[in-house]
């Protein structure tokens, strides 16, 4: 978040695709554009379905998931075409308060109501024995490392008035989301004790929305539970609304299609939202896996662009090179072995991912890292 955001603000609010093009070449820019649009639509979809399920839990039965899907979609439509200060800027302070109340409430409930968090173990605790590498690093995204965030940082950069705001906005957001992620990770294991128990709860309560409902209402009671649920709902909604908006802006930059006239915004926004709505009819779990992989693959490309940028300005480029190399191995290993990928055995996918990462690092060091800094 911080690296991509600061790069953008120093390049007049350029999108992550344009930044990748500047530092990795036009070929990678085109790849990044495609990945960005696909990822942003998938983000919009997964963060449309999740809030709809949670809202359905809080409302009468006749207001079902499909009703809330359409309602959230209408909000996304307005957030996608209206100027930031007209809707998003007015709602986000409220959403932010809800997020803080949720995080503090759930964390406090765990601490003061006698729940215990199991000791950390490096053993593989997955109920089905799925391999930790690379699945954990694809599953754990937002709050740790996320290509989606790299697409959002430039949008914030365009609203900033000074580079000095970068630490609070970009770095602060990273830390805040990491804390929220840890709060819910702690809540999951504190409530259900084992990954098997959590998996069973997800099944018994009809998905993650049911688990969130159970935890919040058990910890905070009816009123506190509703407030906390609103915070949980706000979290994905504040990602989904800006996802479709960023997709529109990315396409506008790509095709040099001026996005100031409302007609031009509608020409791009309506098809994007229509495609997103149609995808909601597909298997949510499969959609999530494709989102997770494309998210981390985009993060990999953003990190390599950041590594080149840091070298060019004479800064410590290793802070980007190390995670970029790691994520290169993660992304390629996953798609080689995943059921929605090439379905290869670990005997092929593991060395394949490592070789790809080593090749990326070697190319970077030869073409960028080992070159003398010029002024």
In short:
With 375 residues, this protein is an all-alpha fold.
Labels describing this entry:
375 residues, mainly alpha, Amino acid/polyamine transporter I, 14 helices, globular
List the helices and strands and how they pair.
Elements (H helix, E strand, L loop, with lengths): L1 H8 L6 H9 L1 H33 L6 H17 L6 H25 L19 H8 L7 H11 L8 H27 L2 H10 L3 H47 L7 H18 L4 H29 L5 H20 L8 H24 L6
Helix pairs in contact: 1-7, 1-8, 2-3, 2-12, 3-4, 3-10, 3-11, 3-12, 4-10, 4-11, 5-8, 5-10, 6-13, 7-12, 8-9, 9-10, 10-11, 12-13, 13-14
What does this structure look like?
With 375 residues, the protein is mostly helical. The protein has a single domain, classed as Up-down Bundle (Amino acid/polyamine transporter I), CATH 1.20.1740. Helices cover 76% and strands 0% of the residues. The protein has helices at 2-9, 16-24, 26-58, 65-81, 88-112, 132-139, 147-157, 166-192, 195-204, 208-254, 262-279, 284-312, 318-337, 346-369. The model has no long low-confidence stretch (mean pLDDT 86).
């Amino acid at each position: 978040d911080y690296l991509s955001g600061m790069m953008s603000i120093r390049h007049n609010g350029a999108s992550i695709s344009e930044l990748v093009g500047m530092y990795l070449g036009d070929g990678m820019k085109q790849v990044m554009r495609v990945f960005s649009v696909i990822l942003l639509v998938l983000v919009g979809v997964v963060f449309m379905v999740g809030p709809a399920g949670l809202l359905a839990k809080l409302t009468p039965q006749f207001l079902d998931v499909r009703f809330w899907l359409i309602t959230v979609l209408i909000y996304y439509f307005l957030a996608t075409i209206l100027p930031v200060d007209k809707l998003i800027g007015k709602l986000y302070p409220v959403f932010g308060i809800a997020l803080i109340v949720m995080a503090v409430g759930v964390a406090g409930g765990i601490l003061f109501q006698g729940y215990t968090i199991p000791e950390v173990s490096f053993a593989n605790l997955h109920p089905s024995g799925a391999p930790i590498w690379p699945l954990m690093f694809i599953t754990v995204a937002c709050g740790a490392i996320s290509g989606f965030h790299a697409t959002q940082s430039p949008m914030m950069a365009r609203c900033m008035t000074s580079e000095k705001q970068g630490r609070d906005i970009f770095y602060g957001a990273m830390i805040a989301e990491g804390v929220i992620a840890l709060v819910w990770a702690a809540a999951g294991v504190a409530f259900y004790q084992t990954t098997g128990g959590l998996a069973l709860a997800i099944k018994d309560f009809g998905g993650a929305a049911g688990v969130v409902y159970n935890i919040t209402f058990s910890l905070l009671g009816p009123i506190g539970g509703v407030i906390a649920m609103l915070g949980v709902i706000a979290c994905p909604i504040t990602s989904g609304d800006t996802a479709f908006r960023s997709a529109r802006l990315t396409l506008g930059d790509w095709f040099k299609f001026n996005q100031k006239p409302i007609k031009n915004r509608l020409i791009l926004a309506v098809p994007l939202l229509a495609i997103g709505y149609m995808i909601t009819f597909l298997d949510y779990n499969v959609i999530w896996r494709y989102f997770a992989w494309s998210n981390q693959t985009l993060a990999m490309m953003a990190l390599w662009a950041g590594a080149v940028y840091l070298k060019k300005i004479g800064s410590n480029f290793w802070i980007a090179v190390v995670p970029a190399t790691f994520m290169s191995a993660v992304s390629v290993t996953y798609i080689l072995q995943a059921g929605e990928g090439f379905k290869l055995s670990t005997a092929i996918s593991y060395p394949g991912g490592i070789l790809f990462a080593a090749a990326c690092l070697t190319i970077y060091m030869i073409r960028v890292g080992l070159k003398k800094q010029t002024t």
